[in-house]
Amino acid sequence: MVLLQVFTPNTNPLGHQWASALVALIPIACMLVTLGALRWKAYWAGLASWFLALVVAIAAFKMPIGMAFSTSVQGFLYGLFPIGWILLAAIWMYQVTVISGRFDDLRRTFFMISDDPRVLGILIAFCFGGLLEALAGFGAPVAIAAAMLIAVGFGKLRAAVTALVANTVPVAFGAVGLPVLMAAKTANLDVMHIAPVTARICAILCLVVPFLMLQIMDGKKGIKECWPFGLFVGIVFGVVKWIVAGTALYNLTEIFAAVITVALAMVFLKVWSPKGGAAAAERIGIPMDTTLEAGAIEKTEDASADLTGGRIMMALVPYVLVIAIFAFAALGPIKSFLLKGDVKMAWPGLSQMMAANGSSPSAHQSYTWQWMSTPGFLLAIVAILVGIIYRVKFSDLFKELWVNLKKMKFSLTTIGLVVALAYVMGDSGQTLALGLWIAGAGAVYPFLAPILGWIGTYVTGSDTSANILFSGLQSGVGDQMGAGSHLGVNGMKDLLVGAGAAGGVVGKMISPQSLTVAATAIGLVGGESTILRKVFKYSIILLILMCILAGLMSTPILSWILPASVK
Question: Would you give the DSSP letter of residue 302?
Answer without folding.
Answer: -
